[in-house]
Amino acid sequence: MSTAPHFDIDVPAFWQDPYPALARMRKEAPIAFVPQLGSTLLCSRDDIFISEKQIDVFSSHQPEGLMNTLMGHNMMRKDGDAHMNERKAIFPAISPKTVRSHWTAQFEAHATRILDELKPDGVVDFVQAFALPFSAECLKSITGLTNMRFQDMNAWSQGMIDGIANYVGDPAIEARCHAATSGIDAAIDDMVPKLRKTPDLSLLGVMLQTDMPMESVRANIKLAISGGQNEPRDAIAGTVWALLTHPDQLALATTGTIPWLQVFEEYARWISPIGMSPRRIAKPWTIRDVAFETNERVFLMFGSANRDEKHFDKPDAFDVRRDASKSIAFGAGPHFCAGAWASRAMVADVALPAIFNRLKNLRLIEHQPARIGGWAFRGLLDLPVTWDA
How confident is the model at residue 98 (pLDDT cuts 50, 70, 90)? Predict the structure, then answer.
């Protein structure tokens, strides 16, 4: 293991709210070995911003890592040419141009249909009522797995997310992850003949037109589902919650004073839906006085970096007026989230303006506060709301 100082955490408390412990680490030990996680955590933005680009040291290739063993060897767990070749192969499906010209209209149709069906019948859990189905329906379109139910898309995504964050080795969590990947494989098998016959701009449709091995196609579809469902779902519900608890900032957004994209970027800084990315040390390395050994595991703590006091004034505050350009919620190196443009379109261009335009006097339920949890992946567990008919 590294020579970093040890820092103990209470795992349940860290899941409930990791930010106090991360703030202490940034102050006392910005590079710290956490025995409860069996990993060394990089917590400062500067260390992460530099290290993520050093792929010869902080390697994404982790043959024995949870993502590889549970989901297959996808582009997120490859470096250099192996990573870039697969990234280029999927680019036609998720490029900014394709998002603007093809996907945004479909996102709008999904949002309109779901909002049309919503009724303010007492207390509504907005995560389940809108954020979850909207994110899943958009992801069905993007992946090409339109044969899935949105409920399955969400459940299988969550099963994989829980599986690849299962650093304590819970066998029940691992079993749910295996069930999720089996379901996705079956959905892929069902769609392959149709998309080979009639290719489209979906991820599956685009990859089938390349010479990418089928095992890599499957692994990359699973990658898209694992991150492509929870991040927009959690960002939509979380940003709605943040704005409803900060009505002055909601007014800035609904009047057009602050763009919706800026609102989304600030939320993603404040509560990073993807709070961590693991790396494997590929060769002996030293950062300042901390030495790393080959093959040890390191966590790049994006959620901590985005609250680094050296770069953000009052970092624990949600403030849509802030310049959030130094946020690394989507990453900072060659593994910058390939779905970032689609995510921004879903959340900022479509979901947020539609929600606050359509649901009049949308408001929280005072006696039922929203619950939030997670550290590797963080989001609202529910969002009780109502609005005027």
Answer: very high
Give the helix/strand (H/E) hosting 34.
strand 31-34
C-alpha closest to that of 257 among 246, 248, 266, 245: 248
- The boundaries of the domain holding residue 47 are 11-386
How many structural domains comprise the chain?
A: 1
Cα 245 to Cα 341: distance, rounded to the nearest angstrom: 27
Distance CA 268, CA 289 (A): 32
> Could you report the per-residue pLDDT of 108-124, keeping only the tens digit for each?
999 999 999 998 778 99
Encode burial over 306-325: b for 16+ CB neighbours within 10 A, e otherwise: bbbeebbeebeebbbebebe
Q: How far apart are CA 164 and CA 347, in angstroms?
A: 25
Please report, for the domain that includes residue 127, its CATH number: 1.10.630.10
